[in-house]
Amino acid sequence: MYTKQFSIFIIAIISTLLLAIILEEWKLYLVVIILISELFFSMINIPENIDISANIEINGERFYINDEAAIKVLVHNKGDTVFAKILLNIPSNVLAKDPHGLITILKRNELRKFDIRIKFIERGKYEIGPVNIIVQDILGTIIKVISIPIIKKVTVFPLIRSYGILDLEARRTGPWPGSIISKRLGTSMEFHALKDYITGDDVRKINWKASARFRRLISNEYESENVTDSIIVIDANNLTSKTEYEKRTLEACVSGAAALSYELLAQGNRVGLICLGGMRNWIKPGFGKRQLLKILYMLAEVKPGKELPADQVLLLLTPYMIKSGSKIFFISPLMDESIIGAVEDLIREGYSVTVIFALCDSSDLSIEILNLQRNIIKHNLLQISNVVTWDCETNIIKALMMNTKLSRRRYHVQH
Amino acid sequence: MYSTSKLKILLFILSLIQIIFWIDNISLMLSIFTTQALLILTINKKYFYTIMLILSFSVLIYATLNIETSILSILRITSSYIVYTLIIIMINLLKEEKQYWIDLSKLIPKIFFTISTIILFSVSIILLSASTLSIQPSYIDTIILIILIAIILALLASQT
User: Fold this and answer.
1) Which residue of A24, A41, A99 is in closest CB contact with B100?
2) pLDDT (tens digit, 9 = 90+) per residue, A295-305?
């Protein structure tokens, strides 16, 4: 393939030649000789037998935002010696710490490698590659482009900012031991009731004061601590990626969902995920690290947009995913009014819903106007469910814990 | 290994050497020197090498038009030719400098080999032409000369 330089050379040769003929200046022909000889020697430098292979090595397949990846590009030249530009294609939203190409001379049978460091600044799924090799002459007049179709896939997860143990209350608990106090009898530290001591009961559970009062042995009964089923709904409906504010809000929601699922799974609960927005998807509740990985993979792909209203999706999915009485965390920037209908439906079905209203700071007037609309939605939601206003700059777990403490204090004052 | 600064220093030194050969033409020497100094002081990567290329090509044309059968004349043509070719190579290397590592330890021998081959070939033809065609030739003579050069190039191309 001829380049722009080649055309410039040809134009320069023809114009100098014409000038020499018009001006009848024989010395200008010498300039033509210079240009022709340059072009000629440059062109004969392109080898016929080009056989180059390449490989990419990356120090992992899973990264978190702000992680750095070390990429090693290995190039093997099995053909003639070439002057080559080797370029590794990297996505535009990745920060390249080093140049991602190499200009070098590759000798026959030479194995060449070079390192590149990249930093992931956005979550998502990335494709690193292919490797493009541009074989050319030293003046750059003719090029041959070889694309080696080697692609490595990498997933970048949102940041997980853990804060502390989340103190949850749930109407429905599972049979497995956990950290949520249930109404069943068990071995936790929470007092449930008094009962007559029967042979075989733990001596340490005898309530001596009550025994003295009733003049027979009385022992304490304690509540059990179990796990619960929960679903995190991430609402990217009506969000776009056009403004910085919306991008920041979506990233905060995703990061919050990651932290919350990590915390809930760490306590032994079953956690599921429903994504609303441009990428509609869901995961059934499950335990453990593998479930966290599944959730993180899905969170990496959350996109803004609106395909279906929240109420339609949730009414269809939730009965299939969890039983009535389970916990639903609705992380939303309250951009979409259909959330009110969705929460109403879920509460009617017997679920315990907590709406986490993601609110990011902004001094923009348009955002302040938008916040008025969002506050109306929040006000409507407060009539039917528990709403936690979460400042996106703070930790979501901290916001939930503060809300739990406040509601308990309110409960004690009322009773 | 991965820096073009060496190549830039080399270009600067060669540009200075090129100026020295114009010692008998002080006004031209000063004008080239001033332009180059100004270009280097107000360096802008996008335009710097293009302006340098135009300047060096102009110097090369001027040196060729004023060709004489003297050592100084040969040195002028050769030095301006080297600077001109080096600038073309540097434009090719530096236009994507941020994207690429540049393996100069391997490239410099190749650059010198290319430049010396081109220069040896064309300067010898220029000198040969200058000595044989010291009188103004006719159209037929020039056409014959061009055809001869084309034949030589074609023969060389078939050989390689």
Assistant:
1) A99
2) 999 999 998 88
Does A130 sit behind a cis peptide bond, omega within 30 degrees of 0 on the bond before it?
yes
CA-to-CA separations, A198 to A187, A188, A214, in angstroms, rounded = 17, 20, 15
Categorize the per-residue pLDDT at B1 as very low, low, confident or very high, splitting at 50, 70 and 90: very low
Check pLDDT > 80 for residue B151. no
Say if A15 is an interface residue toward chain B (CB within 8 Å). Answer: no
What mean pLDDT value characterizes chain A?
84
- Location of structure tokens 């043509």: B77
Domain parsing of chain A, residue ranges? 4-43, 52-157, 177-226, 229-414
Q: Which residue has the tokens 């700059």?
A: A393
Judge whether A248 and A333 are in contact, CB under 8 Å: no
User: Which fold would CATH assign to domain A229-414?
Assistant: Rossmann fold (3.40.50)
User: Please, are residues A380 and A340 in contact by the beta-carbon 8 Å criterion?
Assistant: yes
The ipTM (two decimal places) reads 0.72
Q: Maximum distance among all alpha carbons in chain A?
A: 134
CA distance A302 to A280: 8
- The residues that bridge with A110 in the sheet, in sequence order, are A77
Low-confidence ranges of chain A (pLDDT < 70): 163-192, 222-227, 404-415
Do residues A105 and A81 lie in contact, with contact meaning Cβ atoms separated by under 8 Å?
A: yes
Q: Does A36 touch chain B (CB under 8 A)?
A: yes
Residues of B numbered 27-66 whose beta carbons fall under 8 angstroms of chain A's beta carbons: which are they? 60-61, 64-65
Residue B135's pLDDT is what? 47
Taking the whole predicted model, whether its pTM rises above 0.80 is answered as: no
Give the one of B61, B85, B107 whose C-beta lies nearest to A103's C-beta.
B107
Structural domain that includes position B43: 5-159
Residue-wise pLDDT tens digits, B40-59: 666 666 677 778 888 888 88
Strands A281-286 vs A270-276: parallel, antiparallel or unpaired: antiparallel
